[in-house]
Amino acid sequence: MHRLDWRFDHYTFPLVLKACGELSSFRRGVSVHAVAFVNGFDCNVFVCNSVVSMYGRCGALDEAQKMFDEMSNRGSSDIISWNSIMAAYAQNGYQARALELFEKMTGDVVFKPDAVSLVNVLPACGSTRAWLRGKQVHGYAIRSGLVEDVFVGNAVVDMYAKCELMEEANRVFERMIIKDVVSWNSMVSGYSQIGNLYQALILFEKMREENIKLDVVTWSAVIAGYAQKGCGCEALDIFRRMLVSGSKPNFVTLASLLSGCASIGALIHGKEIHCYAIKCVLNFKESGAGDDLMVQNCLIDMYAKCKNTQISRVMFDSIPLRDRSVATWTVMIGGYAQHGKANDALKLFSQMLLQKTNLEAAPNGFTISCALVACAHLASLRLGKQIHTYVLRNRFESVMLFVSNCLIDMYSKAGDIGAAETVFDNMTHKNTVSWTSLLTGYGMHGRGEQALKTLNEMRRANLVLDGVTFVGILYACSHCGLVDEGIKYFDTMKSEFGVVPGPEHFACMVDLLGRASRLGQAMDLIQSMPMKPTEVVWVALLSACRLHSNVEIGEYAANQLVELQSDNDGSYTLLSNIYANAKQWKDVAKVRTLMKKIGIRKRPGCSWVEGKTGTSTFFVGDRTHPLSQQIFDVLADLIGRIRAIGYIPDTRFALHDVDDEEKSDLLFEHSERLALAYGILITSPGLPIRITKNLRVCGDCHVAITFISKIIENEVILRDSSRFHHFKNGSCSCKGYW
After folding, report:
1. Which of 202, 291, 487, 608 is 20 to 30 A from 329 via CA?
2. In angstroms, rounded to a whole number, what is the distance separating the alpha carbons of residues 730 and 713?
3. What does the pLDDT look like over 289-326, one tens digit per residue?
4. Does residue 607 sit in helix, strand or coil?
């Protein structure tokens, strides 16, 4: 038109500006705006409204507001002008500003909100959970009669659903004279989001009965509902029905479906969805980069949760650094943290902090939580404190409760229960998880009485005690010898608190009774279980048999584990140790042969200790450390000094068929002793030495370290696979009950 010298009119510019907005082409939109201005359309209300709308769609809110203000000052604005500027703010995530404009509009004597105004403002109420304002808008819709409009009715239903007020949403839905598929979808999605899958499925089936065409939103809502409930198989079944119906999945469908696969560890099905995504969804012209990235993030998460972090990392590395969102980094860090690769998680977290390519991909509260989980797994107090500093500097703890809860858990598992208490005491708001994390921390550190006191405080605060809370209190009772208290809470957890005991609670009770040498009672409890005993129950019984040298029950527990096809190397090691302690060396050889035959390798015992600049790891007899000679010299000196004050090596813990002198030599080189000697070398007197061991601490090493704590000026804090031991002045916090 421009080249042909045809004249533009007030119909031309709105159409071209709309096209610029749909393409999010700010540069072209500005050019068209300039041409309109030059051609004298700067005061035309239709053109100016289109300019406001175009700038809003391009995310240029300052320019949109400037255009709107100019129209208002000239007195040329109309109802469409107000709707356009409200839509601009709402579409760009500035819901509060959109609501503010709506309030101004309702006070205007010239313009009153119409159906479009309400359709613009109600989603803003829903996305911000501003249900009170939403009710006020709903009231205005009723008074003005606009509620009869199907689009307004749908917006009201959707607003209530997003605010999780499904009773109100259902009342509006039932009163709607005309309903379309959007009306039904809002209800199905609402029930699905709050976890009421039963009601969502009733509506889903009702839609089919009434021959309402199911679209991608309907199918995706039901799939998401199943995925949230951890019903991955059902989600996959709905997906198959969706494909048969001819409905084409979108990015939201695939994201929900991948979440369902992750929840049940369905790696094969997850791979099938991955292939479908490559063939039918990813990299298509109509898909945006953000949609592609959302699916890629879900794929990384699915592979990680299916314990295939290698493929997750390949996918993560395939995304250019500039395109990685905070979610991309978080799912990969979380995948490592949750599946035993804490070092990789922290290394990646460090890379995220150092990268400067995409400044928008800064860690958020979820990323911080994943990193703290990794620190807790490694008992890395030094790195945990650094992350805590980052949290304080960026004020995460003041707005995100779960970050503070993760800090309590991290400090508890890293050996500083005092710091965990400080975080807890400084929290403005606390929930059941906060109290349970502290309670469990007390149990790990042998402070059973404080754990019980914390539980009583929870009850006084009228907090709901859940299954996790009872695992924490039973664990604390088990590790502190509070047998009667543990039995009392187990017996009353259903009748008094409404919590049905699960396999994890029975495992805690078996552990509690087993440690107290009540193996008969433990067996009776297992036989009375209303469900089939799980692996963790039999491992608890086997550990008790190792502690009390009961070969008969130990063999029975081990056979049950074999029937469950357990691949836990610790179970076989426990049975082997029971036989070795009973000097049944032929049976020891049989267990080791069986392990070799079925491909189970015993994890080597290792201990690590944190220094000022890093962490040093030691294995049995390890001489690879640069300070190896000094370490062995210090250890030899310590053993000589504690022998002089009464230490006698307990050779029962050297589980090899050799003479006692050689057994003493084997005990001398245990990893926890080497870590302690190194800790003494690098730690100033008076400061605690923090050691972590991946297995249960050796009984003789426990005695030796207790003696060593008499002759050094450091407290020794040792975390093994079961609990913490605080050695100081010749005694241990476990009081011999471990």
Report:
1. 608
2. 11
3. 567 888 999 999 999 999 999 999 999 999 998 889 99
4. strand
